[in-house]
Fold mitochondrial processing peptidase.
Amino acid sequence: MASRRLALNLAQGLRGRAGGLSVPVRRGLATPHSPALKTQTTTLKNGLTVATQYSPYAQTSTVGMWIDAGSRAETDETNGTAHFLEHLAFKGTSKRTQQQLELEIENMGAHLNAYTSRENTVYFARALNEDVPQCVDILQDILQNSKLEESAIERERDVILRESEEVEKQLEEVVFDHLHATAYQHQPLGRTILGPRENIRDITRTELTNYIKNNYTADRMVLVGAGGVPHEQLVEMADKYFAGLPSKSPESAAYLLSKKKADFIGSDVRIRDDTIPTANIAIAVEGVSWNDPDYFTALVTQAIVGNYDKALGNAPHQGSKLSGIVHKNDLATSYMSFSTSYSDTGLWGIYMVTDNLANIDDLVHFSLREWTRLCSSVTPAEVERAKAQLKASILLSLDGTSAVAEDIGRQIVNTGRRMSPGEIERVIDAITEKDVMEFGNKKIWDQDIAISAVGSIEGLFDYARIRADMSRNF
């Protein structure tokens, strides 16, 4: 609506200036036309993929390595290793001390960072175009030549233990960690990224080097460039620096277990703590994987449920039917619908926070009633609203070279190819209310659920009562 109003105002303004006549808008000489930006990929002899989106007028670039290995590639005994390695990556290599590494990055004015998720580990750098070769050299150095000194391991052990304490204070993180743990019980996907505290205390250099040897292999890595770095130039650098990477991961027990399809288990976990003034509840059904044909339908369906935050000025008018019910009856402080995908499964659900502790059952009931409504009576108007929000969210998230690199790396590591924004837009445009209802009947109606609840949750009904709400006809 806002974009249409903007276009209408612009058109009216032009007609006003031209005495009522429509005039063409001409592009000035200072705005060169560039063709649609494309993602180029090349696979080296050892299996390493190089992927770039070259923008000829960009002054900066982001380069990074996306690795198909995270906490899911660990065992119960080594859980936390991937995250531990991420911390040690910047603590010195056989070529550079920690101080030299930090000075080199600082002198370029570049940014070097990393993160670990359940299925991926990422190391990336942002810099001016002329400094890209130096950044790739640094990336290859920390990936292949990290010293992993005992003194650094001990220092980072304390840092990670403090980080673990901080994470435990963030209720949303705690709820989602428990949601994974109960939905994927005794499976790699159910483990936390940081690992249990006893593991953090016990991880040794041997486990760290074994993780690198078993997982940092060319067939599971994608070197990504976005911005002003030409594809051929990055391929040359990849050939120079990464040709020596092992081409294939050894098929260890941990590797085979990480590639086994995760089984979703209907179950719940509750941590009652009446000193916490709110109830924090996540409920999920089994969602979709990255490659699932219903991936975008799941996102549209999630957008129909929508989000709500009582603190926002537009809280009474946030669009979705559920937000209207929640606001009118003061059932929640906030809620967030989500669709989280992994290589072979996913979680589709809702996360709710409420201080109205006497009406927790009403909040859960109306949320699940909205879910079951999606299976039979979705209107074209709410589907169009959800599609518009989803497209805007995706396109707005691609603002900047780092965001583009993230999109390229995530898609290629998880699906093997990158869908362009235009292609994604066309797929979303084609989704109808019939597709949403088919998705609802397949994934939501009368399906088992996983529940994670923390805080003042005495008013949360038992699992059987909540599970029965998954097949209501009203």
